[in-house]
Fold this sequence. Notes:
- By secondary structure, the protein is of the alpha/beta class.
- The chain has helices at 13-20, 35-41, 46-49, 53-67, 80-85, 123-139, 153-161, 163-172, 174-198, 215-233, 252-255, 271-277, 290-295, 299-312, 333-344, 350-353, 362-367, and strands at residues 72-73, 88-90, 98-100, 146-151, 202-206, 239-244, 262-265, 283-288, 319-323.
- The chain has a single domain (16-367), classed as TIM Barrel (Alpha-Beta Barrel).
- It is built from 17 helices and nine strands.
- The protein is globular and about 55 Å long.
- The model is unreliable at 353-368 (pLDDT under 50).
Amino acid sequence: MSPYVQHPLPANALVAALLRGNRADCTAPVLPIAAAVGASLLGIPVTTLMREAQAQESAALALVDSFDLPALLLPMDLSLEAESFGCTLLWLDGEVPTVTGRLITAWEQLETMALPAVGAARTSITLEAVRRLAAHQAHVHGGLPVIVGMIGPFSLAGRLFGVNEIMPATITHAAGVDRLMAFVTQYLIRLAVAYKQAGATGILMAEPLAGLLSPRALGHFSSAWVRQIVHAVQDSEFGVILHNCGARDLHLPQMLEADACGYHFGRPMEMAAALATIPPDRLLCGNLDPASLFVRGTPEGIHAAATELLALAADRPTFILSSGCDLPTATPPANVAALVDAARTQSLTGAERALFAPEMQFAAVAAG
């Protein structure tokens, strides 16, 4: 049993905007994580997407224009923050950059290591993309939320210390890992505040490495630190959606300790368990597999899988149909269109339609 008590979520602009969307027909909400697909629609290489603010802006706008999505999404790049600390990256054509080697090999390094400045390395590009989209959406896209990708604290710690090294260290050197977690969390809070000040409406925080931890360790080494970030920035106008594509149903109680306004899961999650566990005032998003369905699958297969998942979540008005993780650039646009079409053909009940009113209050959802 988790010792953390989650309170009802007050009305939140990000939650309201994602459920209301930019349509008037009140069909089921849908939001694939597909920045790379937006880039491919415009012929923008992935390496360019990760290096240029204008490319990120154009890809986000292309996704909205092509699929009528309810948000402007920036890429999910899990090397971005690690590069700010000084990590070496491997760049390959057609792929998101990855971290190579270890920046931190001894806990004593934390005593002299300085936090990167906000805007260091390519975080300046992401900040500029947020500012561009925030200015654009206010005039053209009717106030769609701008959602920026950011790595979670344990996943960032793993990139600095080494993924293979940090997992056993949570058992053998827990105090050292705690020091590292406090260090990276301080930085992520500063970065999240900067994104908020630049005009973002929310963060999609990717914490996949925490899915490899035991439930107890996930609560200690991930959710406790994610919660600090959430409480530093989440309010009525800004939200944090926690993504963990490796989490399973046994992790759910500890993941809720993060107190995010939404939770986004990948293929390993048993969605029936998530539907029964995630409070109804929080977004629940997911979880169609990027590889087997979107990259190698067919529109017909995606439509069938999406329809089945929507049927499972039929009594959950705060469910958002989504991919289980970010979609690769090789994803055929027709497969994304099939996901959206499945949601658009799913009519909501009268009670669910009431949630799309601007005065929506999610405390009432929880109570009802």
